[in-house]
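Chain A, query sequence.
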Amino acid sequence: MPNTQKTAGKAAIALSFIAFISLGMPDGLLGVAWPGIRSTFSLPLDALGFLLVFSTAGYMASSFFSGLLVRRFGIGGLLGLSCSLTAGALLIYFLTPFWSLLFLAVFFGGLGAGAIDAGINTYVEKHYSERMMQWLHASFGIGVTLGPLVMTAGIALTGQWRPGYLVVSLAQFSLAFVFFSSVHLWQKDEVKNHKEEHHETDASIGETLRRPRALLSMLMFFIYTGVELGLGLWSYSLLTISRGVPSGVAGVVTGSYWAMFTVGRILAGWYTRKMSVRTILYASLGLALTGTLLVALNPGIWPTVAGIGIIGFAIAPVFPSLISDTGNRVGVRHVSNTIGMQISAAGFGAAVVPSLAGVFARIYGLEVIPLYMMAALGLLFLSILLSRGSKA
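Chain A, predicted structure.
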């Protein structure tokens, strides 16, 4: 029996990593495909924003209610349904002759992605160590990297953007089949690195929303994801428009932000064995603030480059660490609901925080962005401190 449980645990975590790779791949497709989509449907440049709105709506809806969905379908069943939704959404991209149908596609894709994200985060938080949580999120980085490569290869071979979506759609359908076929793996009560389970009934969403720490948790994820994406989005504009850095160099620097981000999560899987979650969070935010200060001071191009890389490396462990610490903040009965709410808040923050940075940049200039991000990181730090002291 122990060997069977050990094997099931390894299979489940392997599937979790694969699922997160698949979660990242669609996110990497759109940026490369967008010029072709614009040409196909004769769209203006800013039409991409409509797709992002519908995608975020679907993502927030499914992740917010993921606790209810997990209780209804189980982790394996929910992941199978979610991958099927995502695969169907990508298939619409491949088949549709109408721009309006892409709104439906991205909404369904958002529903699938939100459920996968929240469902697997909940499972790994409950059953595995902080080390595995860090590596789970590093898998997402691999997927985001693979998506553009698949789309680029498809365009190079066929001259069209649609085949890339077909390839990833078929991969998602295959993964859905695997999840439906392995439901029993996700129902095991004992797996390797299994955390202590308390056999209590999960709280209702209403009960969880009345917990101050649950609300603080949502705020933390709203801020963090907005800062993470905002720094990645605005670094290129800051360097080229405000500081006169050549576009080629700025592109490499911006890419290094995400490269250091992925490296940070991979390495975090090792040093989490020797450091507490609280220590990792405080050290990561302190180092990120140092890097942001370096960018804000602008002592020269190379110190600025170093600052951007430091930020990416430093903040990488924060999201998975906050996920792993959910149970300590809100209690085991509220974990499933809270993780879903956190993921939903993260999706909202990814849209609001970078957009607000753009508003400030338009009014005060691009140099305000590092200061804005420093303030956001400071608020995140304060929120974490409050979550430790607020009433559970």
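The two ends are 38 Å apart (CA to CA). Residues 2-184 form a domain with the Growth Hormone; Chain: A; fold (CATH 1.20.1250.20).
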